[in-house]
Every structure is written in structure tokens, then in C-alpha cells.
User: What shape does this take?
Amino acid sequence: MSAPHILFLCTGNAARSVMAGAILGAHVPDSEIQALEITTAGTHVIEGMPMSWRTRSALEGLELSAPTHRSMQMRDLHAKSADLIVGLAGEHVAYVRRVHPEAAARTGTLRRLARDLPTATGSFTARVESLGLAAVTLEPWEDVDDPAGGDLPEFEACARDIHALLADLAPALGSEGPSR
Assistant: This one.
């Protein structure tokens, strides 16, 4: 298997998932970024909207950008094509379980995946399957706080939180996982 297709999922696809998509690209070596497919989407989206200025500013604070981003609703095609769907909160995983149950076994929260996927062994597919994501009880600790409605400091804190989580998860996204 080549590098996986990763889908980041939040509510409006205007803050958390956008940040995660841009930040993951920064954590992947240049030699692998060409092969890695990163998509972002939301569960309740106004299609075609740009990210908020606060999201853009928070990304700029990390020296990152996503200049072509436009919000997109998660669709059946995403559920079928993504090798891993990363929800930014438990509600996003619950949405996939409800609306796209065929993808439930490939869907987990960013916090859970950052904690558990790097310790799994085998191929990427086997490591994801070993987590039993479809049956995992979703817990409050898994949520990345939604900065929506907050000021720039909340967006910056969210970006830093996602950055730290992806620093742990990114090495596990290759076909063979982190080098040991």
C-alpha cells in the first residue's frame, strides 16, 4: 500500500479539520508528502466557504497555510476512499458511525489515534484494524476543543494542540508505521 488517504473531519470544515490538514502536511517528510492524500470535510457545512480569518491567523502563527481551502461536506465518496477518517471530536466519529457505518472501522478521534496508532504493529491497514475503532466507546477526553465563537487565542491554542497530536500521529501514517 502506498501512503494512505487521510480525511480530517470536524463540524463546519472551517477551523479544526482545516488546521489538521495543513499541519499534517508539515509533519510529513517532503519525500512522502507527494504520495499522501489529505482531505478535510465537515459534518454540517455551508459548501464553498473559506476558512475563518482566525483559522488562517492561527496557521500563520505556525508558519503554515491552506490558501485554496473551501469548506466541503463529507460525502459517500470520502467514506469509501479514505483509509483513515480522523474526527476532531467524538461527535464526528459518531456521525460517521451513523451516516457512513461502512467506514466506522476506519474512523477514530485524533486524540485516540495519536495515542494508540503509533504503538500498533503491522501494515497500515492491519494497525488500523487492530484498534477496533467501530466498537470503541467515545469518551470526553478525545475531543479537541472547538474554537468556534472564540477569539484568536482560542484558535491559536487549538492549532498548537492539533500540532502536538499530529507530531505523535504522523510517523504512524506510513505504510509500515513509525521506524523503531
Q: What stands out?
A: The first strand starts at residue 5 and ends at 10. Strands lie at 5-10, 37-42, 84-87, 107-109. DSSP finds eight helices and four strands in the chain.
